[in-house]
Amino acid sequence: MPTSDPMMKIQIEFAESPEQYAIGQKLFSDYVDFLGLDLEFQGFSEEMAALGQMYGPPKGCLLLARKGDRYIGAVGLRELDPGVAEMKRMFVVPECQGSGAGRALMEAFLARARQLGYRLVRLDSLRSLDNALALYRKFGFVEIEPYRFNPFPDAVFMERCVSD
What we know:
The protein is an alpha+beta fold. The chain has a domain at 10-122: 3-Layer(aba) Sandwich (Aminopeptidase), CATH 3.40.630. It has five helices and seven strands. Strands 1-2-3-4-5-7-6 form a seven-stranded mixed sheet, sandwiched between helices. Strand 3 (70-81) and strand 4 (84-92) form a beta hairpin.
């Protein structure tokens, strides 16, 4: 069955191997290219060099979305503060947006954040990313005051509770 089949199920994987983290690096690099922005103010180069430490056990993870034999999306979970997780770099390749991959990544992300004992999840995004903001709102994220520096004038900060 070809990977372009719209009925093909989205699989979510937790990165464990160096190969899976390399796939995450590629998807995160594609995300930066998609945005067309310089994210070095967030230490993007250092993040890419230490992806397994930044988004790995025991306090984080890197989730990958796969459709057939193709990886089409990723999102990172890391500790921001005790009890507070941060969602980083939620991305689905443009040609697969609308496929349900973003929803599947979000569901798996929130479940893992709960399993890891976080009570809140925070993120920052851009107002220009309409589809991403719609997804975040659909899953109960609300806008908050900035929790860290972001130089982009259309930056938006959000959070939601994940504890029971």
